[in-house]
């Protein structure tokens, strides 16, 4: 049985919709960890106000959450955007908004896993759907991106891309992607 474009597209869309759907439902219904959301919201707001250098040097001792350096820059960018939209610290809007990078990272990882498997001659489209769904529906993965405020999804995405670069024997790309994975 061949791998037709229609089968591949339908399989990929189905997996991405399931992955996005579960995350969307959890974000909108469960709301996630309020303390974590508030601390990330406060950090994003302070980073937007002060910038990363000033925040790190003057505000760092008072901040409660400890986050990876890469996530700090993501929070800075999203804090600036949230400020433009008027999303305040402690608001549900900001809590949901700050989960967007992790959810996007999960969806990109699902897409990459699907493509990695579907492009391997040993596997069928059904295999690709199963492997991608295994990641999409893994509780720790969707909980990290849609319930908790975590950099896990971003780090996992960069680690996945690192492994893909290793498989292709791209040594410089491996180093770059692994460095980014460590930052998250």
* Helix share bin: over 70%
Number of helices: 10
User: What gyration radius follows from the Cα positions, in whole Å?
Assistant: 18 Å
| Classification by helices and strands | mainly alpha
The H-and-E topology, N to C, reads as HHHHHHHHHH
- Report the span from N to C terminus: 41 Å
How much of the sequence lies in strands comes to: under 5%
Largest sheet: none
Overall shape: globular
Low-pLDDT segments: none
Write down the overall mean pLDDT: 87
Tell me the number of strands: 0
Model description:
The protein has 184 residues and is mainly alpha-helical. Helix content is 77%, strand content 0%. It is built from ten helices and no strands. It has helices at 5-29, 34-50, 52-59, 69-85, 92-97, 100-118, 125-136, 139-146, 152-167, 171-183.
Produce a short descriptive summary.
With 184 residues, this protein is mainly α.
Write the layout of secondary structure elements.
Elements: H1 5-29, H2 34-50, H3 52-59, H4 69-85, H5 92-97, H6 100-118, H7 125-136, H8 139-146, H9 152-167, H10 171-183
Helix pairs in contact: 1-6, 1-7, 1-8, 2-3, 2-4, 6-7, 6-8, 6-9, 9-10
Top keywords for this entry?
single chain, 184 residues, 10 helices, 77% helix, mainly alpha
């Amino acid at each position: 049985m061949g791998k037709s474009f229609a089968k591949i597209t339908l399989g990929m869309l189905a997996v991405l919709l399931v992955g996005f759907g579960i995350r969307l439902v959890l974000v909108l219904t469960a709301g996630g960890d309020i303390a974590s959301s508030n601390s990330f919201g406060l950090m994003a707001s302070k980073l937007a106000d002060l910038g990363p250098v000033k925040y790190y040097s003057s505000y760092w001792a008072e901040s409660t959450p400890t986050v990876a350096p890469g996530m700090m820059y993501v929070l800075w960018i999203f804090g600036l955007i949230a400020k433009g939209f008027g999303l305040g610290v402690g608001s549900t809007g900001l809590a949901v908004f700050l989960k967007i990078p992790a959810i996007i990272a999960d969806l990109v990882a699902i897409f990459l896993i699907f493509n990695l498997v579907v492009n391997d001659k040993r596997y069928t489209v059904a295999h690709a759907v199963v492997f991608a769904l295994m990641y999409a529906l893994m509780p720790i993965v969707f909980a990290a991106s849609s319930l908790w405020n975590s950099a896990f999804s971003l780090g996992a995405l960069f680690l996945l891309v690192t492994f893909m670069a290793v498989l292709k024997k791209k040594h410089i790309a491996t180093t770059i992607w692994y460095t980014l994975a460590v930052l998250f």
